[in-house]
Amino acid sequence: MAKYRINGFDQIKAFYSLVFSQTHPIKPQHASLYVFLINQNNRNNWVEWFKCPYDLAMAGACISSKKTYYRCLNDLQDFGLIKYEKGINEWKAPMISIEVLKDTSSVPQGEPLVEQLVEPLVEQLGTHIYKLYNLKQLNLLTREDIKVKEFLNSLTQPDPLETNFTNYTKHFFQQSTLDRLGMKTNIKPNEIKLVATEFFDKCYGDIMEKRNKFQVEQYFMNWVKIEGRVKEALSNQFKKHKL
Length: 243
Fold this sequence. Notes:
59% of the residues lie in helices and 4% in strands. By secondary structure, it is mostly helical. It has three domains: 8-98, Arc Repressor Mutant, subunit A (Orthogonal Bundle); 127-156; 160-242, no CATH class. The protein has a three-stranded antiparallel β-sheet with strand order 1-3-2. Helix 2 crosses helix 3.
């Protein structure tokens, strides 16, 4: 068959002009089937006549009833939109021809915008903004990538408890703090540091639970009041230093 004389865009425009003219009772199923038939004619390179099996047309037009499909097909022919010839039996596909329509331009036009919807930026955004919203990079990240990245970041972040312990240690082993605690606990100046070292070695878990350095000091003073604790601490530290 020779190539037919249809322009798909003009045909759709003319069809919807017909819809808005209300000269024919065009329903949703009519529009759905007609647009599908134009699609099929396009796939057949705009031949004048083409075959279209009913099951294919029903699926493409979202029509579930065979009776509704043939009624729509007859209606489209009565509206002057198509021509069709039945197959020689119910198993043979009908032959269909799309009638060329002329656009009457009866479709209402949308109202033009009077004002701009988005105001342009007065100043250019900083470079860091562009880096933060780099869509290409964001699109590359899957949920799994983000979870892995968060996990790796957590490994590099300092443990808050470890940070507290370090701060407590720095405060505790200042000479002024040691002197003050030595006077309160009656520990000799040359022994207070050894006792404090043993305290931090033995009581690591308890120290980590303290909220601030003053609670650590109070716990230390309570710890050294236990009978024999200072003597044991000095003995252990002496053995370590000797080794």
